[in-house]
Write a structure and sequence with these properties.
This protein is of the alpha+beta class and 263 residues long. The protein has one domain (26-262). The protein is built from four helices and five strands; from the N terminus they run H-H-H-E-E-E-E-E-H. It has helices spanning 25-75, 95-98, 108-112, 255-262; strands spanning 149-152, 186-190, 197-198, 211-216, 221-225. Strands 3-1-2-4-5 form a five-stranded mixed beta sheet, with helices on one face. A hairpin with a 4-residue loop joins strand 4 and strand 5. It is elongated, with a radius of gyration of 30 Å. It starts with 24 loop residues before the first helix and ends with a helix. Residues 257-263 have low confidence and may be disordered.
Length: 263
């Protein structure tokens, strides 16, 4: 019987498989170390970029509020809105009700009535500090809505224990001309708590790597360190700084009070 082998017709024959070389533990550790090294370089950079982007967006929000403020002043004989509190949501002149319409946004009192959270409404991004929104502080005590920006409570026309001898005008708005000689008068800032009003120790420096942002009366926005708002940057003592050359809060303590405080 005639037999033709597979090799005769040019048909490849099966070859013995070569033994695969096993990957050693040392090679695995080397690759793993390289991956960790690359991650250690990239992750901090990505984190810094994210924080920087949040800061820019927060400043941009304040710029928008500044535009609304200027338009409101033009329509209101250069009077300022008032600060407002949780107990005065529906009162006239409060900033969070009179300014949003200039930005094609509803007044805060209208948003509150929908029984939701501001973060549920993308069109209301002007209310949201992107850094603060990542924290437990993003909601109010009721869990509904929140204030990520607040108005300087000195500019409400009402005296308080923080401002002895300050002219008390009740709940009437203050005319902007009172501060015309102080171009660094603070109007709004990003706030740590969820309050529509506040003071130096309420600025949200903890959300932007020890920086807080303020909106000046003239519309400019600036950032400052915690030590520019409270003495030594120590928020636990909450000793306010009133005389910072670039942060005017609409009030300067009487000289006799400053002298007695130094003694």
């Amino acid at each position: 019987m005639f037999f033709v082998s597979r090799q005769h017709w040019g048909i490849p024959t099966s070859r013995p498989l070569r033994a695969r070389r096993a990957i050693s533990l040392l090679e695995v550790l080397v690759v793993f170390s390289i991956v960790l090294f690359i991650a250690a370089i990239l992750i901090p950079s990505m984190s810094r970029a994210r924080v920087s982007a949040w800061r820019v967006q927060c400043q941009n929000n304040l710029h928008h509020w500044g535009v609304a403020l200027q338009m409101y002043r033009d329509d209101s004989l250069d009077y300022l809105p008032t600060e407002g509190t949780y107990r005065s949501i529906d009162k006239p002149y409060v900033w969070y009700n009179v300014l949003p319409p200039y930005l094609d946004a509803p007044s805060y009192s209208d948003v509150r009535r929908v029984n939701g959270k501001i973060e549920d409404y993308p069109a209301l991004h002007i209310w949201i500090c992107p850094a603060k929104n990542q924290t437990y502080r993003k909601k109010s005590s009721t869990g509904k809505n929140q204030f990520h920006y607040a108005m300087n409570q000195v500019l409400d026309g009402m005296t308080s224990r923080l401002t002895p001898d300050y002219p008390d005008e009740g709940e009437l708005p203050i005319h902007a001309s009172r501060f015309v000689r102080q171009p660094h008068t603070v109007v709004l800032f990003d706030v740590f708590g969820n309050s529509p009003n506040g003071k130096q120790s309420d600025v949200a420096t903890s959300f932007h790597e020890d920086r807080g942002h303020v909106l000046y009366l003239g519309g400019a926005v600036a950032g400052f360190r915690a030590r520019d708002f409270v003495v030594d940057g120590d928020y636990s003592s909450r000793e306010l700084i009133w005389d910072h050359p670039s942060l005017h809060w609409g009030y300067t303590p009487p000289e006799e009070d400053s002298e007695s405080a130094d003694q």
